[in-house]
Amino acid sequence: MNNKFELKILATSWGFTGTTGEFCDKAKKEGYDGIEVLWPSGKKEQDDLFAALEKYELEVGVLCAGFDRQYQKHLEEFIAMTEEATAQTTRPPLYINCHSGRDYFSYDQNKAFIDHTTRLSKETGIMICHETHRARILYSAPAARHYIDTIPELRITFDVSHWCNVSESLLEDQQETIDLALSRVDHIHARIGHPEGPQVNDPRAPEWEPAVNAHLSWWDQVVEAKRKAGERLTILTEFGPPDYMPTLPHTRDPLSDQWAINVHMLHLLRERYLR
Q1: Contact 225, 9 (CB under 8 A)
Q2: What's the burial of 156, exposed, middle or buried (CB within 10 Å: 0-12/13-18/19+)?
Q3: How many Cβ atoms from other residues are within 10 Å of residue 222's Cβ?
Q4: 88-133 pLDDT tens trace
Q5: What residues are paired with 11 via a beta bridge?
Q6: Which of 64, 78, 157 is nearest to 110 (CA)?
Q7: Measuring CA to CA, which residue among 43, 98, 18, 32 is closest to residue 65?
Q8: How many Å apart are CA 275 and CA 265, to the nearest integer?
Q9: How far is the C-alpha of 119 from the C-alpha of 117, rounded, in Å?
Q10: Which residue among 105, 162, 177, 210 is least crowded, i.e. fewest CB within 10 A of its CB?
Q11: Whole-model pTM over 0.85
Q12: Are the C-beta atoms of 160 and 191 separated by less than 8 Å?
């Protein structure tokens, strides 16, 4: 084993309703190494982020995305956001996670996003990964397989919960594609999906044990590969708020505590991989 292996576990800002400073304070107290945030477009928001990161001594991973339904505008949005996030030197991110392209863009259109990030990563030295996310380039295992087979430079943020949902299975019949994807993973979104949805209501509940074990087995393989290579792995605990979190009818009260579940995942991952 290479002793240079490093694991950093980050908190998601998704669903947090307080200030950036309050979020960083809470993440630090829970023992997170850093946070993942959508790259803020405004100067004040960027300054607030950098000040909080410095005050609480946290690392940062950045989410970049395109949103427009029209290809050219979407690509331009994405390029602008990724270039701004990587050009700033105040606090270089551990990685850029990409919500890139759309499931209805053509192969060549989606490839333009990957080609851009490949060039940008080489220029900046920042790890840039494309997320396996519904509605995006890598929305399903079969769709991702074509990009994996044809683009050797593609690096992946592995949020396999989406693939379970899209394929309505725990992917037992797609092991070869899973193995290929795992060989490209540099960042993990640690949320537990299931055949009928992208998020179980509470991973601590015994009825979800098969889904939890399936996800852990996939993550185990990534950790083992990074250990052998002596490389850093980043993991985001990413159980989300409603409507990812199931709710009660009428009141829309969440069935579980999002923050508590993510902290549970933080401790589970630390104990499993850093013991």
Answers
A1: no
A2: buried
A3: 22
A4: 999 999 999 999 999 999 999 999 999 999 999 999 999 999 999 9
A5: 35, 237
A6: 78
A7: 98
A8: 15
A9: 5
A10: 210
A11: yes
A12: no
Instruction: Give 190's contacts (C-beta < 8 A, 6+ positions apart).
Output: 215, 219, 235, 236, 237, 238, 265, 269
Which among 221, 218, 169 is positioned nearest to 191, based on CA atoms? 218
Distance, in Å, from the CA atom of 190 to the CA atom of 4, rounded to the nearest integer, reads: 23
Phi, psi of 167 (to 5 degrees): -90, -5
Provide, rounded to the nearest whole percent, the portion of the chain with pLDDT above 70: 99
Spell out the alpha helix ranges (H) of 151-257.
161-167, 175-182, 209-229
Reference 126, options 94, 78, 89, 155; nearest CA is 94
- CB under 8 A, 24+ apart: contacts of 75-81: 75/109, 75/112, 75/113, 75/116, 78/113, 78/116, 79/116, 81/39, 81/41
Cα radius of gyration rounded to whole Å, the chain: 18
Segments in 7-70 forming alpha helices (H): 20-30, 43-56
- How many degrees, rounded to 5, is the angle at CA 88 between CA 86 and CA 90? 125
**Residue from 50, 35, 38 nearest 88 by CA:** 50
Cβ distance 129 to 113 under 8 Å? no
Which residues have a Cβ under 8 Å from the Cβ of 193 and sit 6 or more positions away?
Answer: 160, 161, 162, 163, 164, 165, 199, 200, 211, 215
- Tens-place pLDDT, residues 99-111: 999 999 999 999 9
The answer to whether residue 1 scores a pLDDT higher than 70 is no
Local structure of 10: helix, strand or coil = strand
Sign of CA dihedral 131, 136, 140, 142: negative
Which residues are within 8 A (CB) of 37 and not within 5 positions of it... i.e. 6 or more apart? 13, 20, 49, 60, 61, 62, 63
What one-character DSSP code corresponds to residue 205? S
